[in-house]
Amino acid sequence: MRPMAQIAMVMNLDKCIGCHTCSVTCKQTWTNRRGMEYVWFNNVETRPGQGYPRRYEDQEKWRGGWELNRRGALKLKAGGRLHKLAGIFSNPKLPEIKDYYEPWTYDYRNLTDAPLGDDYPVARPVSSLDGKPMKIGWSSNWDDNLAGAPAYGDLDPMVERTRQQASEKVKFAFEQTFMFYLPRICEHCLNPSCVASCPSGAMYKRAEDGIVLVDQDQCRGWRMCVTGCPYKKVYFNHATGKAEKCTLCYPRIEVGLPTVCSETCVGRLRYLGVILYDADRVTAAASVREEKDLYEAQLGVFLDPEDPAVRQACERAGIPHDWIEAARRSPVHALISRYRVALPLHPEYRTMPMVWYIPPLSPVVDALTGTGHDGEDALNLFGAIDTLRIPLEYLAEMFTAGDTGPVRASLDKLAAMRSHMRALNLGDVPDPAIASAVGMRPHEIEEMYRLLAIAKYEERYVIPTAAVGDARRLEESALPAGCSLDYDGGPGMGGDGPFGQDSGRRQLPLVSVENFHLLRKRQTSDHADDA
Amino acid sequence: MTTLLWGALPYIAFALLVAGLVWRYRYDKYGWTTRSSQVYESRLLSIASPCFHYGILFVLAGHLVGLFVPMSWTHALGVSEHTYHLFSLYGGTAAGVLTVLGILLLVYRRRTRSPVFRATTANDKVMYVVLLAAIVLGMTAKLTHPSGDGYNYRETIAPWARSLFTLRPRTQLMAGVPVLYQVHAVIGMLLIAFVPYSRLVHMFSAPVPYLFRPYIVYRTRDPKQLGPRPERRGWERLGS
User: Fold this and answer.
1) Residue A128 C-alpha, separation from nearest chain B C-alpha, in angstroms
2) Fewer C-beta within 10 Å: chain A N or C terminus?
3) Where are the transmembrane segments (chain A) (predicted)?
4) Chain A residue numbers touching B40 (CB-CB < 8 A)
């Protein structure tokens, strides 16, 4: 056993109102730069829909993720190492920027500078790529709220797959359709195919918290990661020629703060916490032959932080004590492993994603209420979940490689919770049969309800800090693993760059408060005596 | 002049190459990239870029063989001068044509596809001129001496090139070389000197270690970087 810790996320899709606050705050924080106009580390898709970039889930076209070779071993779907290097001069499977959308701005100046005339001046859209006026034809949320679904809806790769398997059709007629929102960030996978695709070795998974990052100094812009990621969450910065991706806001995570998308989520639907897993079992779990078994296989990789043997192994592996404690309180662990209501997004890509989703019950409840039935009666709901096959099968294509079993089990638990809690709220005695029908006990249902409905900030985000993890090292010196005199301009051995003090890499200036005041006094004083 | 061109210039070019690489590695790792424009335009690139790159790799191999395998070695293997000449003529021309077609298509693409053209810097333009000149002049020099056994550069240019490494350059060998070959060699040296200062630097990051490393890379946090750092290139705010 080789235990490792990972910061993982769960999103409760029932609560997503599709407001895009997460996308916008993320954009403002991370990607409001030239070259990154089209980049959305976080985006919210309306499903059914094509997603962003368009039809990214069609892996027969984009070749993202892993597949099994004839011997049953994992192999990058876009080709092995030699194949990759042979095709390095022009990546054959790279989405063009127009597969995302052509970024644009508006000619705002015209509004104030236009000469006097008969027409009102307008701000024409101007392409950010070539600076010419353009016609806007697509963007990251063109099909928001099923906009244009009668025309575009059939292009959703998951709709196509559901159709192949079900005799009924996913309907886009207004009365018959269903819809939910899917916020997506980088999955920070346990078996990341982007990392495996990087020829330069610039992409890596951080050992402490499992965050997948791109080393900007090592990236050489070969673009293989963009192809390798089946979720298309690595983007190419066309101004700098380097790959960039969601960082899980690691500067915030390191100090115990939730990611920007979680922090600003209006629906409070995101949960962050530690998951302990066995790194030795990842490859075996990702190479399970049957795609439908991948969900269970990934659950098998996770370790139970309540198990004393696991805790001991974690201590031995150098995982800090407060991380192990955080894993015990982790809401993510509870939703994934204890209650088993959260499911991975597209486990069939074999990357072992670590952002999981609680499937939405609302399409079912809405359909049920629409027919005049009681949408919160457990038996009605159980029945409806079975009858409304299309939403169920669609969800199964997204979360369990087409196996409706786990999706139904998760939805049943949510339905039981609704029914159980309604009885409590109305002062009735809840029927224990409802809880036992989904394999839970009444107090478990109430705990799950607390986590899903009223969990406060500290319960939703249980993030151990990097600093406490580093504490032992920090005890030794304020400057770990380095000479305390070796700072910029200091008396240490670091010294200046070859072309004077300003050359070379600038390091963080470390100045004590006393020195700072002395220096400032000397620099700003009018008297020679002070100097 | 002879001493300057054939005795000094090679060393200056080499010094600029090495110094440039060291400088670039130390101070501009962030700018060390292919600066690919494939996200703007993929269709033409998918033909032109492999054509050019495979062509130029073959040309490079040809130059290495031509300059650094002495005549006596090939004679010892029983390869006659005529055979060698034909091999170098046809092989070299094939690779050259591939390269030239590739780079012409690349230049055409760069000029006509407006997002690509807009992403082209002045440095890129100079680079294209020098690169194109070196390739075209090399081809011309070779093809203007095709008759018989052609111009035997293995008795003049190649020994001179090898003598550079012994630090006793035999500059007089280059005095009688046809002008076209001389110009090609000078431009070639300029190109070598220019490599680290242009996007051509990406040739030194050929990702060969990829063949040998494990697929999944783990790294631990850098303990030296626990605080914020100054704003860096590529992370400037939009509109400033």
Assistant:
1) 9
2) C
3) none
4) 96-97, 129, 238
